[in-house]
Amino acid sequence: MEERYTTLGEFIIKKQEDFPYSSGELSRLMNSIRLAAKIVAQKVNQAGLVDITGAFGKENIQGEQQQKLDVFANDIFIQTLVNREIVCGIGSEENDDFISICGADGSNNNKYVVLMDPLDGSSNIDVNVSVGTIFSIYRRISEDGTPVTQADFLQKGINQVAAGYVIYGSSTMLVYTTGNGVNGFTLDPAMGTFFLSHPDMKIAEDGAIFSVNEGNFNQFEQGVKDYIGYCKDHSYSGRYIGSLVADVHRNILKGGIYMYPGTVSKPNGKLRLLYECNPFAMIIEQAGGKATDGKQRILEIEPTELHQRVPVFCGSKNMVEKLERFL
Ligand code: AHM
Ligand code: MG
């Protein structure tokens, strides 16, 4: 079969065959994410048609209003993973605490935990801008068979076994890595099948796109301001959708830097280490780029809390290194 016809399902099986002694658990987990992504894609595509957009009237732990589709996506991903008894714990940006998944006898022999932002950028849904799901998979560090603990979720990003995102854009794509390169799959909506469309994705070492919310400019530290000045002096294109998955996806494909720096009022910025920064840092590094909080590699930050925020600068290697010289 020619590569262009490879489906995500086939790709997952092929990956597993590279590890003949694997239990197949990660493959089954990826298949569950693939299924949940299709269900959410279908719902996102209907957002303008059915009464599903708009505020749900509830706030999440960060005091932000949840949208109906946030809640839907969260439920679908959780249900899919729980029903298939495929993980021992789930951490979600939409849940205050992690979820421990146990059988009737209180035990769980699965070895992976999933952390996710089920629908990032959901404030963009009402205006038909691309949104996405971000996920991250770790091997538990607590003893097999016992309920998961917070420590299973507070692992450094370098421990990620896999990470990926789904972008619900003009087409739906699922992009993921298991630590051996990055591959992207596009959903054929007529067939309901993801096909390998972007094998071995690489981000250019140099780029000419900078993505940052310049509305916060006056609150940035001087080094960030100077770097933005450098980008302008070099006539780089400013591109900021305000939807992380879409902004980073574009920069991976075209070369560029994404920045969410700390501000005077929010020194740690806005984005969450566990649900947003770590998965993207793994993907970007696997694609040949870099991701830093300005002081250290994102993947080496020791997490201290589930909903921790960190400044983030990620993208084309030479652009991130240039920025680091300004900081
Ligand atoms: P969310 O997880 O609540 O959707 O917020 C994250 C989003 C990102 O998608 C995006 O990059 C960022 O918030 C935009 O923030 P701002 O509007 O401050 O620029
Ligand atoms: Mg988010």
UniProtKB/TrEMBL annotation:
Localization: Cytoplasm
GO molecular function: fructose 1,6-bisphosphate 1-phosphatase activity; magnesium ion binding
InterPro entries in the record: FBPase_C_dom (IPR044015), FBPase_class-1 (IPR000146), FBPase_N (IPR033391), FBPtase (IPR028343)
Keywords of the record: Carbohydrate metabolism, Cytoplasm, Hydrolase, Magnesium, Metal-binding
UniProt domain Fructose-1-6-bisphosphatase class I N-terminal: residue ranges: 7-199
Gene Ontology biological-process entries: fructose 1,6-bisphosphate metabolic process; fructose 6-phosphate metabolic process; fructose metabolic process; gluconeogenesis; sucrose biosynthetic process
Pfam families: FBPase, FBPase_C
Residues involved in Mg(2+) 2 binding: 117, 120, 276
Reactions it catalyzes: beta-D-fructose 1,6-bisphosphate + H2O = beta-D-fructose 6-phosphate + phosphate
Pathway: Carbohydrate biosynthesis
Keyword NADP: no
Cofactor annotation: Mg(2+)
Binding site for Mg(2+) 1: 93, 117, 119
GO cellular component terms attached to this protein's record: cytosol
Enzyme Commission number(s): 3.1.3.11
Keyword Acetylation on entry: no
UniProt xrefs under CDD domains: FBPase
Major localisation: cytoplasm
Domain of life: Bacteria
Enzyme class per UniProt: hydrolase
Binding site for substrate: 120-123, 213, 240, 270
Alphabetized HAMAP family for the sequence: FBPase_class1
Cited PANTHER family: FRUCTOSE-1,6-BISPHOSPHATASE-RELATED (PTHR11556), SEDOHEPTULOSE-1,7-BISPHOSPHATASE, CHLOROPLASTIC (PTHR11556:SF35)
Record-stated family: Belongs to the FBPase class 1 family.
Subunit structure: Homotetramer.
Protein name: Fructose-1,6-bisphosphatase class 1
